[in-house]
Design goal:
single chain, about 400 residues, alpha/beta, D-Maltodextrin-Binding Protein, domain 2, 2 domains, 4-stranded mixed β-sheet, 20 helices, globular
């Protein structure tokens, strides 16, 4: 019996050798930005993809925002970047400028219906030097939240219609511990305050600073005076996310200029927030800065065609609707967003109002210049703006220094 088992084993081994080496299982990896709560649905992505490509294994990785960039860069340096990456804001621009992203143009040219899924205004946000490097995942942009109770106490009824009205409204609501206005200060989210006054950051060719103008000086001078008086809360220039949202949720700030996801944070923290007490509007002029999420494919991907198939699947109407209704966002997928809006109108009218404002004035998007050195330009500009509004420098000194510093970055 033992001899028979040995002979049988030998026969099987010879058969395997005769058949040749077993093909290695192909794999793609997907890196997402801080959505561990979406794990169940991501397993659904993978299950659906397995029906299309049973030969491909999908690995899912999720990282918090501050960890995602360093992780991606480390993996890229090792020659093993994730195949598909979910990125926020302008972080991708440096990657694109360095040749790390796959141009999706050839895929979109072959499958024009995929490009047709998305609102063209949001597709433009993810273009660099004429190439489409990313597809929208979910979309957010800045708007104005306001405390109707504080408005009423100050004798105000409507949201401000001009920049000067923002400041006058803010002054009327400022007393004691209460202040009138806050803005987010990262990722150019504050730029609508300059755009509504006709200020441009750079020249059309993106090669030189264009902001050091009388209009910019007037704008910055007024912002500095309003901050010094307390009408603009200093957290507007020193906080990031938790601090301005927390202050507004506490019911002591009249207006908050920030991107739409702040609504869910504020409503979760502010007991006063309901449909009767919270107002939502576009800022004067309809200007807004996007702070959206999108998906790219690494140029170093060993399975770019499989990655494209996966990218198409997760941005399809089915999965876009699922994402939007689960995590309270619009997606840029035109048909999906119609269903998402209908869902919120039926189930959460206040959230629906926030999302409606997000989809207004899409021709007035600003603060999304395709600058290869976006992060360096941000730092060079905002450091000096902060110096002015906090009284460390005069507005003129700050703008002159910012102009020199920005031009130095742009000339590299």
């Amino acid at each position: 019996m033992a001899l028979k088992r040995v002979l049988a084993g030998a026969t099987m081994a010879l058969a395997v050798l005769a058949a040749g080496p077993v093909a290695a299982q192909k794999k793609i990896s997907v890196l997402t930005w801080n959505i561990p709560v979406y794990e169940e649905k991501i397993k659904g992505w993978i299950a659906d993809f397995k029906q299309i490509r049973p030969d491909i294994t999908v690995e899912w990785i999720d990282k918090k925002g501050p960890e995602l960039g360093p992780f991606y860069q480390t993996q890229s340096a090792a020659g093993t970047p994730p195949d598909i990456v979910n990125v926020q804001g302008a972080l991708w621009l440096e990657y694109a400028a360095n040749g790390a992203l796959l141009d999706l143009g050839p895929y979109l040219a072959k499958e024009r219906e995929v490009a047709g899924r998305f609102d063209p205004n949001f597709m433009k946000v993810w273009q660099f030097e004429g190439k489409q490097y990313l597809l929208p995942f979910y979309i957010t942009k800045t708007l104005l939240f306001y405390n109707k109770e504080m408005f009423k106490e100050a004798g105000l009824s409507d949201p401000p219609k001009t920049f000067d009205e923002i400041l006058s409204h803010a002054a009327k609501m400022t007393k004691g511990e209460k202040s009138g206005f806050l803005t987010a200060n990262f990722d150019w989210l504050y730029w609508p305050l300059f755009a509504m006054n006709g200020v441009q950051l750079v020249t059309p060719d993106l090669k030189k600073a264009a902001f050091n103008t009388p209009a910019a000086l007037d704008t910055l001078t007024k912002l500095a005076k309003a901050t010094d008086s307390g009408a603009i809360n200093k957290i507007a220039w020193t906080g990031r996310w938790v601090e301005p949202n927390g202050a507004f949720a506490a019911g002591t700030v009249g207006m908050l200029h920030i991107h739409a996801p702040a609504f869910f944070y504020v409503r979760g923290s502010g007991k006063w927030v309901n449909q009767d007490t919270l107002g939502v509007a576009a800022v004067p002029g309809g200007w807004s800065t996007p702070n959206s999420h999108a998906l790219f494919i690494s140029k170093a991907s060993k399975e770019p065609d499989a990655a494209w198939e996966f990218l198409k699947l997760i941005t399809s109407k089915k999965w876009a609707v699922t994402f939007g209704t689960t995590l309270n966002n619009l997606t840029g997928n035109i048909e999906a967003d119609k269903e998402i809006m209908a869902h919120f109108k039926a189930n959460d009218p206040l959230a629906a109002r926030v999302l409606e404002v997000q989809m207004s004035n899409l021709d007035k998007i600003t603060g999304n210049w395709p600058l290869a050195r976006d992060s360096q330009v941000k730092e060079a500009f905002y450091t000096e703006i902060q110096n002015a509004v906090l009284g460390r420098k005069t507005p003129k000194e700050a703008l002159d220094t910012a102009e020199r510093n920005v031009n130095r970055v742009l000339s590299r």
